[in-house]
């Protein structure tokens, strides 16, 4: 009978062999080009198996290692992993609203955020009993408009929550200037913007707190997962408690609490309110290998976008594509396209043609959350959202990921160009 060690070695060898066999061949017009492709390989699977074989599968050393690697990648002091990007947003806001903070966000306060967004940027604002103030976005970047932020500020405003949508950095330096002028918190939703930069600094590290997602469709994936990042030791310490029931055991000041509350069993010492947002070691196992691949994946996305932008230059009378703004590094969560209102075709006609030809499409996340029925369940405030409405009507995005090579991106370009030229004729 083989030993457990030899069986494990054999299993890992077979896994490596499995992933080394390429069974994919792109056939133009027949092979579907999806919005995303799996980012993991044999390294992640074998690392996860090690955790399964050891039976230590809940949050442990691999999660901690990934946190350290991610903090180093961002050049931030602290990174705390949770079970999703949505949880990361709720943790970040809950930190700033926590009763233990002297200058906390109080119930009924207003938090400014863009109307073109994702639901779990807005919902957590309501979850902490605050009011989301939904403002318009730039029609070319899809990011929050600086002038709209200024107009939305009132005596009730306590924070700004910008989103770096689709990997395109927002004007975060200007956001920080406004926040400093009005003494506001800033929570950066960078869930779609891993590795994006403004003047050489990674997004997610400008604000008081930043959040990231590692959902299956993102630049790197832990299947599900998220991260809260900060340079504040106090915020990080609070995050450690809030992540797991308000438990003290994972806090750096654990021994201080043990001494202060000697009558309570230190194994079950709760010093704050909290959630159960723990990630698993399986997610941590994926993360410690995924982070090493991130820059390579980003360069493929950037190369694809550069190719498409050049190809579509002569069709600027009909479609708008995003350009990388000076001083920024766009990481292209997807490749967005806007059909101009005066074009001889509509967004829906182009989308239908692409789908029929095997190119998957999606709307721009939630282009205007105010048009969603769920918003009626949330107390909110909003202004003129004409750009968000335009994006809802005229914009969409296609996949731009590490699974798209020369043949795929050429097919995508030719398909879009053929459609435009045939419609123009």
Please describe the topology of this protein.
Elements: H1 4-20, H2 42-54, H3 61-74, E1 78-82, H4 85-96, E2 110-114, H5 119-127, E3 131-135, H6 146-152, E4 157-160, H7 172-182, E5 185-189, E6 197-198, E7 201-202, E8 209-213, E9 226-230, H8 233-243, H9 254-260, H10 281-290, H11 294-311, E10 319-321, E11 328-329, E12 335-339, H12 347-356, E13 361-362, E14 381-382, H13 386-394, E15 395-398, H14 406-424
Parallel strand pairs: 2-3, 2-4, 3-14, 4-5, 5-8
Antiparallel strand pairs: 1-9, 6-7, 6-11, 8-9, 10-12, 12-15, 13-15
Helix pairs in contact: 1-2, 2-10, 3-10, 4-5, 4-8, 11-14
List unreliable stretches of 5+ residues: none
Strand arrangement within the widest β-sheet reads 1-9-8-5-4-2-3-14
**Which overall shape is indicated by the principal axes computed on the Cα atoms?**
flat
Q: Do you know the CATH topology of the largest domain?
A: Aspartate Aminotransferase, domain 2
Mean pLDDT: 97
> Helices and strands, in N-to-C order?
HHHEHEHEHEHEEEEEHHHHEEEHEEHEH
- How many independent structural domains? 2
* Relative helix content: 25-40%
Structural class: alpha/beta
Distance between the termini: 73 Å
The level 1 CATH classification of the largest domain is Alpha Beta
């Amino acid at each position: 009978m083989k030993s457990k060690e030899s069986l494990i070695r054999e299993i890992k060898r077979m896994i490596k062999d499995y992933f080394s066999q390429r069974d994919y061949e792109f056939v133009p017009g027949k092979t579907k080009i999806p919005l995303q492709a799996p980012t993991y390989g044999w390294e992640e699977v074998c690392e996860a198996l090690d955790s399964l074989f050891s039976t230590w599968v809940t949050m442990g050393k691999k999660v901690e290692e990934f946190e350290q690697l991610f903090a180093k990648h961002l050049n931030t002091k602290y990174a705390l992993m949770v079970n999703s990007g949505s949880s990361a947003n709720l943790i970040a806001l809950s930190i700033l609203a926590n009763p233990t903070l002297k200058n906390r966000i109080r119930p009924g306060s207003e938090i400014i955020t863009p109307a073109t967004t994702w639901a779990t940027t807005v919902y957590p604002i309501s979850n902490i009993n605050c009011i989301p103030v939904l403002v318009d976005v730039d029609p070319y970047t899809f990011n929050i408009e600086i002038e709209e932020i200024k107009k939305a500020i009132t005596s009730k405003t306590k924070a700004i929550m910008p989103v770096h949508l689709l990997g395109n950095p927002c004007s975060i330096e200007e956001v920080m200037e406004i926040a400093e002028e009005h003494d506001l918190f800033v929570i950066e939703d960078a869930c779609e913007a891993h590795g994006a930069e403004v003047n050489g600094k990674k997004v997610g590290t400008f604000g008081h707190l930043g959040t990231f997602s590692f959902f299956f469709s993102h630049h790197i994936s832990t299947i599900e997962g998220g991260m809260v990042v900060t340079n504040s030791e106090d915020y990080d310490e609070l995050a450690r408690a809030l992540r797991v029931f308000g438990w003290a055991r994972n806090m750096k000041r654990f021994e201080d609490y043990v001494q202060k509350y000697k009558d309570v069993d230190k194994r079950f010492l709760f010093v704050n309110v909290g959630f159960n947002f723990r990630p698993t070691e399986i997610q941590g196992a994926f993360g410690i290998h995924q982070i090493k691949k991130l820059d390579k994946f980003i360069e493929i996305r950037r190369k694809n976008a550069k190719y498409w932008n050049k190809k579509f230059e002569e069709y600027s009378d009909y479609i708008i594509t995003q350009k990388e703004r000076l001083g920024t590094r766009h990481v292209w969560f997807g490749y967005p396209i806007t059909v101009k209102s005066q074009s001889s075709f509509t967004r829906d006609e182009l989308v239908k043609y692409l789908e029929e030809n095997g190119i998957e499409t999606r709307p721009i996340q939630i282009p205007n959350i105010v048009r969603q029925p769920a918003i009626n369940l949330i107390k909110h405030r909003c202004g003129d959202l004409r750009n968000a409405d335009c994006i809802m009507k005229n914009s969409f995005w296609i996949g731009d990921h590490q699974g798209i090579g020369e043949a795929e991106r050429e097919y995508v370009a030719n398909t879009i160009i053929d459609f435009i030229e045939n419609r123009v004729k």
